[in-house]
Amino acid sequence: MAHFIRVFIHYLYEVIPALAAGFFISGLVHELIPEDKVLKYLGSGGVAPIFYSTLIGAILPVCCWGSLPIAVSFYKKGAKLGPILAFLIATPATSVSAFLVAWSVLGLKFALYIFFAVIVMGVAIGLIGDRIKYEPKKIPEKLSCPHCEIDPEHVHLHEKKAIKERAVAALKYAYIELPKEIGLELIVGILLAAAVATFVPVGSLIKMYLGGWLGYAFSVVFGLAMYICSTATVPLVDSLIRQGMNPGAGMSLLLIGPITSYGTILVLRKEYGVKVLTIFLSALIVISLLLGLGFQLN
């Protein structure tokens, strides 16, 4: 138990500075990027909207659960399926916090590969989404602001904020709202990482069975069955690799785990149907395995 506590504290020392910086940057992004500007680029098909939604999703400081209401709002405002699937891939799979933590724990090469792998995966699955034939749900028309219909650049008076108010809102989001949203997942991820690194039987299991190709199968099953946010997955994967897991399989777990929450599965099934959900999960598994293999062979 004492060894477990020491390992847990060690991970805290590694993760907390990167989290503090990442949360601060996330607060600025959250407060300074208007949602209407984001929505402007997601309403048509093609590569450009998919790339925009993937890049925006990779920057936005929200986890899988937080991305769902945003994605639904995109859908209700007319966003196509491709950009929405790309957004649901990129948003939870990486973030500023996750990048900084991955750099701190796994190294710069690992962090850069994750970021670009998420971009590739988001664009690829977005393009697949554009080709899926499905029957979209009818969205009831809602009354909107007449000024907004005349001038897309129109800003409501209640949305104008002073610099002090923006700073307070950014700090509140960064250090109160965002930790509330993903704080539990962060703690669980670090606890799991400490447990894997501490208990010998788990380490022996990994060394015996997860060092080769079975590690990829484990990454798929574990990633689909359990949701851990992108930041919290980093120390867990680090501990698995230290115990002998194939780094490529660890990369696949980093890509699958944060994306496939039960919320995402249920929302996709409700809004788009079983067909879209099945294609989405199948493409996610295949592409994440290929990207993991590419990292191993690199």
List the helices and strands and how they pair.
Elements: H1 2-32, H2 35-39, H3 47-59, H4 64-76, H5 81-93, H6 96-106, H7 108-131, H8 146-150, H9 163-198, H10 200-209, H11 214-225, H12 230-242, H13 247-256, H14 262-272, H15 274-297
Please characterize this protein's 3D structure.
The chain is mostly helical and 298 residues long. The protein is 78% helix and 0% strand. It has helices spanning 2-32, 35-39, 47-59, 64-76, 81-93, 96-106, 108-131, 146-150, 163-198, 200-209, 214-225, 230-242, 247-256, 262-272, 274-297. The two termini are 38 Å apart. The protein contains 15 helices and no strands. It has one domain (2-297). Helix 3 (47-59) packs antiparallel against helix 7 (108-131).
